[in-house]
# Entry
Amino acid sequence: MRILVVEDEPDLLASLAQALREEGYAVDTAANGADGLFNAEGTDYDAIVLDVMLPGMDGWEILKRLRKTKKTPVLMLTARDQTRDRVKGLDTGADDYVVKPFDLEEVFARLRAIIRRSANLTTNIIEIGDVQIDTAARHVFFKDKAVELTAREYALVEFMALHRGEVVTRTQLYEHLFDENESSLSNLLDVHVSNVRKKLGAEFIVTRRGHGYCIE
Amino acid sequence: MKILKSIKWRLQLWYGLILVVVLAGFGGTAYQLERNRQFRQIDEELHRRIGVLANALHRPPPRGQNAERPPQGLPPDGQDDNPPPMGDNPPERMPERPHNIFLNGRPPLEFHLPERDAHLFGASEAHGFYYIIFPRSGGKEIARSSNYPNHEITTTSVNSLRVVNVFSEFPARIAKPPQMFSFDDYRETGDVLPSGEQIWIGCSILPELKELHRTAVNLTLVGSLILVVGLAGGWWLVTRALNPINAISATAVKISAGDLSQRINVAEAESELGQLAAVLNSTFARLETAFAQQRQFAADAAHELRTPVSVILTQTQTALNRERDAESYKQTVEACQRAAQRMRKLIESLLELARFDAGQEVLKRLRLSFTKTISDSVEMVQTLAEERGVKIISKIAPLELTGDSERLAQVVTNLLANAIQYNQPGGEARVTLKSQDGLAVLEIADTGQGIAPEDLPRVFERFYRADQSRTGAGNAGLGLSICKAIVEAHGGTIEVASEKNRGTTFTVRLPLT
# Structure
C-alpha cells in the first residue's frame, strides 16, 4: 500500500510518515500544495492524506484538480471542525476527514476504511481458500494458524488480496509496495513472492508469464 | 389582574371610562333639557286653562239672567282679581272681598264653561285636560270635568287611588304660588282664587312621557353607538401604536435566545417607536459584530493551537509505538519542544491582545528617545537581514516622545522583521523617522512582492495572513494586530500601503508630546 502525505508542518509530516511506514505502508511526502498535486497526479496511490491549510495551494484546490483525473481515496486533515468545512470537504470529493488534533490510531483506521471501500470490501477480514487476512490487525492465517510475515510480505499479500482476480503487474507492485526513496532492485519482488508462496502455499499466488501475478 | 397590567387594556379602560362619563353627561343634559321643554309647554297649557276656568266661574245673578252673560262678560283679569265678573254692578263688588262676608251664607259661585272653550277639556283631546273646582269652604266640588280621573275611584288601581288622595288633600294644604305636581302619568296644578275657590287642573302627560322615552332610547342608542365606535377606534389606534413594541419585544426575545441576526422591522421611522427601533437595531448590529468577532477570534485561536497539538500527539504516539534508540527519542522531544514553544508564543500573543482589549495593559509613560528605540531594533534584526540578504537603510531624525520603550521597540522590531522576511534576496528595508505636523512619523518600507489590494484592509485583523505561504512556525498572524493595539494605546495610528511587486510600506504616527 502506497500513501501520499501532504502536510506543511515539518514535524507533523515527519512523524506521520514515520508512523505510517511503521504500519507497513510505503509513504511519499509533500510539504506544499503544488508538490502534493504533482505527486498525486503522477502516481497511483492507494490513499492520500491531505491537509487543508497548505501554502501555495490549499487542500480543497488540490482535491478539486485531482478529482478530474483520479479516484484515489483521500483522507482530509482539517483544523476546522465546523460542519460546513466538513461538508465542503466531502462534497469536493474527499472520502473521509480527521479533525486536528487527532490520534494516530484513528488516522490508521480511517485510512484502512477508505482503502477497503475503494476495493469494494466491507470488512477487515479477507478469506481466500485456506488463507485468512485480517487487515486491521495485519495478521495472516493459513489453515487457522497464524503465519509470520515481514511487513513487505504482508503488504504484498494485502495488495494482491485487495485486487483478487485481477492480474497485477510487476510495475504496479513496485508502485504500491515501495515509496519514491527506495531503490527497488528488480529481483526483490521475486524474493518476496517466493517467500509468501513458501508460507501460504505455492498456488496462493499464480504467475502469469509476461503479465504479472494473480490471486484467484 | 394580568389584564390590568397590560398597557393596551389600561388605555382602553381609561378612555372607555372617560367616553362613558362624557356621553352620559351630554345625554343626561340633553334629556333633561328636552324634559323641561316638554313640561314647560304642558305647564303653559295648564295655566292657560286655569285662566279659562277662572273666567267660567261667576256668581249667579240676582235675577235669572246668568245663562247668557258670564261667557261674554268675563274680564280677562278675573282670575287675578275678583271672581265676580259683573262689570255692570260695581257696588256689588265691594262687600264680596272680606272673608266674613263670603262666609256669611252668600251663594257659591257658579261654573259655566262657554261652548267655545269646551274643546280645551275632555277626553277628545290627546292630553285629556281635566279639572275640578272646589268652593271656598271646601266640601263638595262646584264642578268637575267628565274625564276627571277620580271616576276611576271605583277601580282598585293604585294610581287612581293616589290621584284621589292627592286631590283630596290639596284643598286644605295648597298655598300660592301654584305648584306643579307630577305623578304617574299625570301633571296637575292648582290655583286659589282671591275669592277662595280652588281650581285644580290636570292632564295626562302620557304623550310627553312617550316622547321622552323615545328621546331617551334614541340618546342611549346614539350614545352606545358612539361608545362602540370610539372603543373600536381606540382599540385600533392603541393596537397600531403598540404594534412596534410587540415587534421590538419579539425581536428582543429572539436575540436573547441567541439569534443575533434578528432586526426590528422599522415601518414608521418617523414615530418615537420607529426611532427607538432604529437605535436598537444599530445596537443589535454592533452586538452581532462584536459577538462574531469574538467567536471568530476564539475559533482562530483554537485552530492555531490544533496544529502544534497534532504535532505533539503524532510525535509521541509514533515514538511510543515501539522501542527506539536515543537519537529518535531526542528528535521526538525536540519536535515536541518546538510545538510547545509555538503554543507558548501563541498564548502569550493572545493574552497580550486580550489585555489590550480589556484595557488592562499598563503602559509605562516615560520620556524616551524614539530614535534610540529604532536604532536598537535595527541592530536586533541585523542578523536576520544578513541571513536573507536584505539591506537595511535607515534615515532617522532625532525625536523624543512619551511612551513605553519596550512596547514601541516591539512594534518597530515586528515591522522590521516583516519587511525582511517578506522581502526578496538583495532587497531593501527602508526605515525613515521624521517629524511632521507635531507627530513622529515612522515609515518602514520593503521591496517585496507587496500585498494584494483585497487583502490590504485586513492585514491588521487577528489571525489574518494575506498569503498562506507566509505561514511559518510561530507566525499565527497576530503580530500586526498587536502592533496596532500598542500604537493605538499610545494615541497613534498605523497604516499600510502596498503596490504589487514594488513593496509594502507601514506608516506609524505617534504624538510627539
